[in-house]
Design goal:
The complex is a heterodimer of chains A (113) and B (113). With 113 residues, chain A is mainly β. Chain A has no helices and 11 strands. In chain A, 40% of the residues are buried. Classes of the chains: A mainly beta (113), B mainly beta (113).
């Protein structure tokens, strides 16, 4: 069966520090991968998605970047965190076809102080 | 902005009652819809989905209804249980967003015993 791993679960980082969040998927090949950010009381907002290794699409302008160095690995990064980067970050995957459900990781709670 | 929204931010019901959670969408090009359940501090979990060529789909204790004429989606939960307490989101797959899901704001369901 397929599983998705996302870590760390919580993270407290100072303003101006770098960020690296990692997500890996097991049990499937060529997944579409997604990074979402969720503000308190809101639905997840799509940040990035990837349809293959090295292929990244950004949905909103921001202080973050994403990379996909391997088929089942998706990384969210920042060179210098801002206070406004605080939030709940979710990684997700689906089978790469339209009209299929996405499966989410357990999320990372990032607090920038 | 988010064009997939829910009519009510909160819904409180008694255990054993039926719950109805509503969602309105504005993009007529959307052809796939999903309901997710999210418990505090966790990633969203898939509940049920429906394609635009259907108007009703049933699962275990849940039913999703789709009214394309008025762009309205609802989730019905039968015999609501305390374990159903969570935030519920509808999400859509828009043709211009590839395979990515776009989320609405969410409804918090509280079930009292």
């Amino acid at each position: 069966s397929q599983t998705i791993h996302q870590w760390p679960a919580t993270l407290v980082q100072p303003v101006g520090s770098p960020l690296s969040l990692e997500c890996t998927v097991e049990g499937t090949s060529n997944p579409n991968l997604y990074w979402y950010r969720q503000a308190a009381g809101r639905g997840p907002q799509l940040l990035f998605y990837s349809v293959g290794i090295g292929q990244i699409s950004s949905e909103v302008p921001q202080n973050l970047s994403a990379s996909r160095p391997q088929d089942r690995q998706f990384i969210l990064s920042s060179k210098k965190l801002l206070l406004s980067d605080s939030g709940f970050y979710l990684c997700a995957w689906n089978a790469g076809q339209r009209n299929t459900e996405a499966f989410f990781g357990q999320g990372t709670r990032l607090t920038v102080v | 902005g988010e064009n997939v929204g829910l009519h009510l931010p909160t819904l409180s019901v008694q255990e054993g009652d039926n719950s109805i959670i509503n969602c309105a969408y504005s993009n007529s090009a959307s052809d796939y819809f999903i309901w997710y359940k999210q418990e505090s501090g966790k990633g969203p979990q898939f509940i049920i989905d429906i394609r635009s060529n259907m108007d009703k789909r049933q699962g275990q204790r849940v039913t999703v209804l789709l009214n394309k004429t008025v762009k309205h989606l609802s989730l019905q939960i039968a015999a609501t249980q305390p374990g159903d307490s969570a935030v519920y989101f509808c999400a859509e797959n828009r043709s211009q967003a590839g395979t990515a899901l776009i989320f609405g704001k969410g409804t918090t369901l509280s079930v009292s015993s």
